[in-house]
Amino acid sequence: MKRRKLAVAAGFCLSFLLGTLLNVLFIPAFDPQHQQSAGVTHSLAGSPSDVSGEAEHSSSRRRWDLAQQIRERYEEVLRYQRRQQQHRAAAAPGARLLMRPSERRLMDLAPRRLAPSSSSERSPARSKAPLGTPWAPSTKLELPLGPLRLGCRDISNVSDVHYLGSGYTKAVYKAVLNRSLAVALKSVDFGGHDIDHCVKVYGALEDCYRLASYKIIKEMVLLERLRHPHVLQLYGYCYQDSNDISDTLTTITELGSPLEMIQLLQTSWEDRFRICFSLVRLLHYLAHSPLGSVTLLDFRPRQFVIVDGELKVTDLDDASTEETSCTSNRDCFMEFPARNFTLPCSVEGKCQSMNEKRNLYNAYRFFFTYLLPHSAPASLRPLLDAIVNATGELHWGIDTTTAHLERVLHLYKSGLYLENTTRTPKSDYKRMPETTIVNDDYRCWPSYHHKGCLLSVFDVTEAMEVCESHSQCRAFVLTNQTTWTGRQLVYFKMGSTVIMSDHDKTTYVKVVN
């Protein structure tokens, strides 16, 4: 019994010594200096100075992130300018490209790069600015644009200002300058999504404005570089102080009417074809522009306006000339709500014609399917159906699509689409020169006049065919007005009760046997 007690006591002492030894060897906190510093750190973890330090670091990180976004958009503007300069240099080989003072000023704002000291430094990694000193360009950029008609002096003499609408970034106003010229004024929308979201995240209104304003600057550069009948004209711009922010930017552009698809569906087929033809001409130009192939990333009807019956693109801040890089066809995947496409990857490592095909399919799904085939002349419908089907499957590129639409236009303007139709009127008509019919109107669809039946015809024979296809038609009046294709406008009447003199019109009355 005594030996057992001694054994137990010895085991207890041995376990105590082993536990102490393990604590000394393996527990990090045994070091007095470490323990002291850890205690200090623990005691300060919840102190106000620690919280303020974290807040300052977070604030610096946000400022740096915002500055980086501003820098990226600024450099995007520079890229488009450099591409234009390269195009001009290529167009005049051997000629030295001179830089205007405003161009030098803009280029001087770019961060300078150190010359490489050895071959191993030819592609150095971009160094990051310290958190406390983020890089930012000047608040005002004088862009090397061509001669512009309007500026701040004209904006100071503005009248009849009306709000037209806004998007994520910009607000658009209709205004009259110098009491004579109606224009559109575009500026950053301080109540818009971009500014509102940026201020909530970064809490810096002026920097958030600068970030949004670069989208307008990019659009200005593209409007000036991409001069085309179906690109909205840039008239000028102005920097002014507004909302406690210096150098806020306002652009002055051509004024157009918003594109309303519901209204377009109620217009004549000829006018709807004109919209589609304008769009195809625009996309053909964008595919072969001086800046390269341009795609409209935010392709929607609201990005276009109508000016004198022609379609024009007005919103280019989301346009891009970057071609998607690839290593295989799998990288060239285009996804749309109803269809997906995989394009070939070229030997240069770029997705083949992706910018062009993206524009073309968007034209198909937003415009062609609704505007091209419906109420078209019967002989043209097979050609129009082929265009719609081919663009919907992306079997054609923009060059082939343009050629087919030009063929349709030629057939329509020349009257060749009428060759395979019977052109012998069933009724006789009495011709009455220099006269018109008052009242006796009826409505038809589609019509150029909402209270009567006003249609376009190729010739008098087609007018007779139209009259005979309308059960209520008893007469028609040829005017001296023509449409954009040169076709004559004709009023169709349900009677000839009152006939009056009119030197610009000719009346045809159906003879009743």
UniProtKB/TrEMBL annotation:
Q: Name the source's superkingdom.
A: Eukaryota
Q: Which UniProt keywords apply?
A: ATP-binding, Developmental protein, Differentiation, Glycoprotein, Golgi apparatus, Kinase, Nucleotide-binding, Osteogenesis, Phosphoprotein, Protein transport, Secreted, Signal, Transferase, Transport, Tyrosine-protein kinase
An example GO BP is:
ossification
Recorded catalytic reaction(s): these are: L-tyrosyl-[protein] + ATP = O-phospho-L-tyrosyl-[protein] + ADP + H(+)
Q: Where is the composition biased (Polar residues)?
A: 38-50
Query: Its Enzyme Commission number?
Result: 2.7.10.2
Localization per Swiss-Prot or TrEMBL: Golgi apparatus; Secreted
The record's section on Gene3D superfamilies has: Transferase(Phosphotransferase) domain 1 (1.10.510.10)
Ranges for domain Protein kinase come to: 158-437
* InterPro entries (alphabetical): FAM69_kinase_dom (IPR022049), Kinase-like_dom_sf (IPR011009), PKDCC (IPR042983), Prot_kinase_dom (IPR000719)
Major subcellular site: Golgi
Region listing for Disordered, in residue ranges: 38-62, 111-133
Q: Which GO terms describe its molecular function?
A: ATP binding; non-membrane spanning protein tyrosine kinase activity
Q: What is this protein called?
A: Extracellular tyrosine-protein kinase PKDCC
